Amino acid sequence: AKQLGGNQYQSYTPTLQSEFLDDLTLETSLRYAVERQELELYYQPIVGLENGKIVGAEALVRWHHPQQGMIPPVKFIPLAEQTGLIAPIGEWVLQTACNQTKSWQAEGLPPVRVAVNLSFRQFNQVDLSERLVRILDESGLDPSYLELELTESILVQNVEVTIAKLNELKSMGVQISLDDFGTGYSSLSYLQQFPFDLLKIDRCFVQDINTNATNAALTNAIIQMAHSLNLKVIAEGVETREELAVLYENKCDNIQGYLFSRPVKAEEFKRMLQEGKRL
Ligand code: C2E
Ligand code: CA
Ligand code: CA
Ligand code: CA
């Protein structure tokens, strides 16, 4: 039996039917994607603005579908969440990111952190901590090099439970960042209660900050308030030198975006580390 969301059955109309069938076909192939080794992790560098050097990378999953070619994560992560397939996929992503990062360090490359996206459903797995402890242990990666990216969706749940979970993860030594900040509904004062280490400002605020006064004002306010809450700030989706200049002036800590690099294969990210690529 397929565990698609109940509302998909309710809104059963001819147009939705084909979408539904597409999802079923996709689900069937996604079910085997991990074991058939069709998933690959790409790495997008994260750069420190104090010296322009790479400080880490965000691991971003790619699916090489045997017939349909590359399927972007926005097309299969939501499906994976709906069907529960996010569990094995998320496990594979964590393992691969930790093993890869540890092996770069073992090869003597400058140590950098790796950021892994954790979906809402993964965050709510009862055995998440046990899984993480095991993955970190097996990889040998120092937990301080692992950063977990969570979105504001986790904040709508019971506040005490969420804080307790975050503290449990933090007690293992990993870092926690709040991803896509600004796209949800949480104010910065609300955030104060949660033990985040970093805040990632969503690309929609960073876009055109050199010409868009509203975006500039919002981004700058977010950076200042985040700093007053002792959070480091990463600006996402930085595409131009002009945007970078504004972020630099406003003391943003880290940037990520096409300006420095698109997400790249592990081999290419390793080369950037080796060559000491800088902004
Ligand atoms: P995200 O976590 O916000 O990841 C950043 C997305 O922005 C990536 O898209 C990245 O390629 C894109 N991006 C980075 N810099 C720029 C830029 O300068 N300009 C523009 N236009 N885009 C930029 P991607 O790789 O397609 O991933 C999309 C989303 O899929 C991610 O958004 C994340 O929510 C999800 N995702 C990706 N990998 C995983 C994963 O392993 N697990 C989970 N749960 N979700 C994942
Ligand atoms: Ca992310
Ligand atoms: Ca993001
Ligand atoms: Ca996003």
Task: Tell me what the structure shows.
This protein has 279 residues and is an alpha/beta fold. It contains twelve helices and ten strands. It has helices at residues 6-10, 14-31, 73-83, 86-106, 120-123, 128-139, 159-171, 188-191, 203-206, 213-228, 241-249, 266-275; strands at residues 39-48, 54-65, 69-71, 113-117, 146-151, 175-181, 198-201, 232-235, 254-255, 264-265. The chain has an eight-stranded mixed β-barrel with strand order 1-2-4-5-6-7-8-9, surrounded by four helices. Helix 11 (241-249) links the parallel strand 8 and strand 9. Helix 2 (14-31) packs across helix 3 (73-83) and helix 4 (86-106) packs parallel to helix 6. It is globular, with a radius of gyration of 19 Å. Mean pLDDT is 91; it is low at 1-12. The site of one calcium ion (CA) has 4 residues, from strand 6. This is EAL domain-containing protein. Residues 23-277 form the EAL domain. It comes from Phormidium pseudopriestleyi FRX01.
